[in-house]
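Q: NAD(P)/FAD-dependent oxidoreductase, please. Structure only.
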Amino acid sequence: MTSSESAPTAPEYDVVIVGGGMAGLTAALVLGRARRRVVVLDAGTPRNAPAGHVHGFPTRDGMPPAELLALARAEVRGYGVDLVEATVAAVEPSGTVRTGDGREFRGRQLILATGLRDVLPDIEGLRARWGRDVLQCPYCHGYETADKVLAVLGTEETSIQQAQLVRTFSADVVLVLHADISLSDEDANGLAAMGIRVLAGKVAELSVENDALAGLVLADGRTVPCEALFLEPAAEMDKGLTRHLEVDDDGCIVTDGLGRTSQERIWAVGNATDPSAQVVAAAGDAYRLAVVVNAKLLEEDLGLAVASAGENPMAGMVEAAALKEAV
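A: Structure for NAD(P)/FAD-dependent oxidoreductase:
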C-alpha cells in the first residue's frame, strides 16, 4: 500500500446483532466469550412479553420472560458486549444497520434475531387476554390449562391439528370455526373420535368474569363457555429488516442449514426464521450459529493476516529464527 492510499475504515463491531431475545443474547454470549466486538440492538418488546412464564427451558421452567432476559443481559455484559436500546429501521447488505433515531452501527457480520410480531384476530377483548388465558402453544401453556373447559379458534387448516393437541390436556374441547375452514370427512371423523366438538360461528368478543375468560360470544349471540382459548395468530416482521433478503410465504427469512441468508454477511436465527421455535430451541440454534459466524470471522482474519505479511508470509519467521541462532 502506498502512502497515498488510505487504509479502509475498520468496522465498528465484528458482529451487530439485531434483537435481544434469547436467540440474540445467546449468540452474543458465545461471541463475547470468543472475544469479539459485539453489539446487541434491541427495542425491548420481546414476542413473549405478554406470557407470564417460560416453560420447557431446563433450570428456568416457570420463570417470567423478563427475569430470564435480565439474567442473560447481565451475563453478556460481563464479556464486554454492548447492549443498546434501539429500534432498527433498516439493515443493509454492506453491514450497516440504521436505527429509527438516525444512528448507524456497522459490523463485519450481522445477525438478525428479531423474532416476529403476532398479529391477532380482530376480536373484542382478545388482545387484553393474550398470554394469560388466550394462548398459542399447548406445549408452553397446556399443562397449566389441564382439565379446564378449552376452546380452539379455527382460523386455518392447522387449527384442526391444534385442537387435537389441545385435547390431550382436557376432555372438554370445542373447535370454533371462526374462519371458513373446510373439514374433510377424515378430519371430521378424527375430531369426533377424540371427543372434540365442532361449532361453526364467527367470534365477536370474549366474555370475561372476575378477570378470567368465561366464554366466547359469537356474532349470532350464542355464548360458548371456555376457560382458556388457543389460537394460531398470523405473524409479521418489519419490511425494513428484510427488503434485501429472501423471505418465504409467511414472511420469515429464508436461511440455509447454517443460518446464512441470501446476503453473504447477514445471518438469521430464532423466530425470524421459524415462528414455531420455542425459547430453548432458539437459544440452541443461536449457539450453533454464533460458532459458524465466528469461524467466518476467523477465516477473514486469516486472510488479512496473510495479505499483510506480503507475498512471503514465512519471511518474518525465518528472519526471527536466524537472529535466534546468531545469539
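A: Brief note, in case it's useful. The radius of gyration is 25 Å.
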